[in-house]
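Record type: monomer structure entry
Structure origin: computed from sequence
Chain ID: A
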Amino acid sequence: MASNKEALALVVDVGAGMCEAAPGYDSPLQMASDILQMIVQRKMFQESKDELALILYGADESNNDLADEDNYRNINVVFPLSIANWHLFEEIQKIKPGNNPADLVDAVVVAADHLRRETEGKHGFAAKRVMLFTNAATTFSDHSLKTILDSLQRQDIIVDAIGPTWGQADEEDETDENNPSDSSAQTNGHENGDDHSDSNRPTTNGHSQSSQRKPLTQQQQTGIRVIGEIVNTTEGTLFTFREALTILSVHQAKVVKPTATKYILQLADLKLHICTYIQVKDNKPAIFRLKKVYARDPTTEIKVDRGRYTKDEQDQEIEKEELTDGFRYGTTFVPINKETLDEMKYQSEKCFSIIAFSDASMMRRSLYLGDTVYEVISEPGFEEEAQAFAGLVQAMYDTNTVAIVRKCFSERSAPELGFIRPHIAHDHICMYYVKLPFAEDLREFEFENLDGTKRNQPSDEQLKCIDSLITSMDLTHADRNGDEALRPEYVFNPYVQRMFQSIARRAVTPDEPLSLSNTIMEMNDTLLRSVASKCKRTLDTIHEKFTLRDTDRRQKITTGDALFGNIDSSTKKPRLDENENIEEPITDSSITNMDSASFEAQAAAKKKAALRNVGTLTPVEDFKLLMEQGSPSFIEICKQMCNLILELVNNSHGDALFEKAFQCLQCLRDTCIQKLEPKIFNDLELLLKKQASTVDGRKDFWKKIVDEKFSLITSEECVESNVIPVEAMKFLEEETPAETLANAATTNEQDGEEEDLFDLI
């Protein structure tokens, strides 16, 4: 069995010295309890096989294997060595201060003896560790310290210590003197009640890092010296409470041991044994796979029984053996049995073959597929092949080349297309594999070119604003030491952290509401606030330089006056109240005039409200009324107008209807310029010219257009048009080459969402 577990004894000082704290500050015992809870939570969420023990010294009870009437008193083994669970978490929450003194050296001896007894005869423990939580304020005896240290070294037990301070107060004060600006900033943040200062910032569990700094007593100085000697001899580490809280404030998911997948890299006749490891992968912790439990007794096993029944009056149960898979083919379900499914599957074999080489610049970031990046190295044990592999990587690196690879994990898996690019860093030589899409995976979209119109061209001032924004938000040298400020290995997923917090809080306090803080904002508030303060002025300038304007397109008219017209109050029939005295008599002629005017206004309003199409009688007026109403859509109204123009031209006896058609064409042109829709008119005029070249009877109408110099909408008339004036003049020539017609049709393709006019008509 592989040795990958750790035996950890948590030794906590619960004496009177650990409970002393100034008002508004956490006691050392409270901070130690917070750190212990975070350690246990991390072990449980990681599903770690490490075993932990909880030992209290300075307690009122003496429960350990070495205790007698005179020795190893007031040392209590609360939780024997076992895998971390919620029982250990509850025991940590129950820690209370004791009233009896205890020797910290004796506590280390009891912890080492407990680890020896519990691990003796067991396999799989790679390390044994004692973690001591104390402020070194209790008395102790070090007369046999040399013997104890020799015993710890023989047993390979490492001792770590966590406390408020380890004699670093002078060094920190000296640092503050050398950096007065930083010191003053921290002091001001504390005085102003800034909750985001480093000393007051809560951890992801909601714990505070606030602690009081006070001078060390003589006893503490002696204890720190002895603890330092123990830690250094066993090659352990000293941590302050603040350092431990910062390290443990982030929950980590289960640590998975890297497993290699072996392939044979094939390049023509060259075959190399390689291994692939997961370098980057989307983390999906198993903790999120929720399971149904019985609320009254969560330990009760729940069995799921599924039944299948016919959807009819009989409601007959169907056995699983009677079911088969079916695929929809149109409106029909085609049954496919298991044998046919097996025959349908693509048969392949495990491979990792290089099929081509390409320039690295061809691998655009938009072509990257999948959620995993693999690191490819030469398989250990094949030294000659390793040299060939290193030569291939070096050659690809020197020529800036990538290799296109066909990869198949097994005979039952579908083949993949990907590429491997070389990576050389110091003494490490490898390649990275990234999945590429097949032709069926690509989605090609055509969008309007932003550089095609003058309206989308930024000014020099706008370009300078964007440059300033990029510079102010650049994290390349934003760190205090001038290094990269954004380190991906320290940027944690807020969704994962929130889930861990919620589960831990609900397990401890199931009846209290979840009042958790924003993890990422608290962990990175310094960086975020510094970046926000730098770019605030630039953002304000961008708001001034980049103004938003309403293009007034497809505006719907919903007011009553706009829908039914603004009827003059003088034309309305006056309403007579019963108590109203009218001195001037009303003649029959005046009543007749008012009734006639009112009737005409009402009739016009009804006609306006009922209008839905452009008619042949008054097409220009109908077109304008529909544009005012905003219903139907602008595209639909223009479609009706185009159809009407073509109908008038084609059905005209001679040139009888040409004048009306020309008025409609002129109205449509003016509206398209106003609404920034030149494509609609230009497509219609292109169609009219095509008809004039093929239908003899329509050349007269086209000649009228040429005489009036009624050409395409140019870019000078409308910013959305790509037709320049020279092209518009050539378009009106009597004989225009076919290439010009094709270019005119191509340059007018502006809006991908609008239908082509030829399709509409």
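Annotation 1: The first helix runs from residue 28 to 45.
Annotation 2: The two ends are 78 Å apart (CA to CA).
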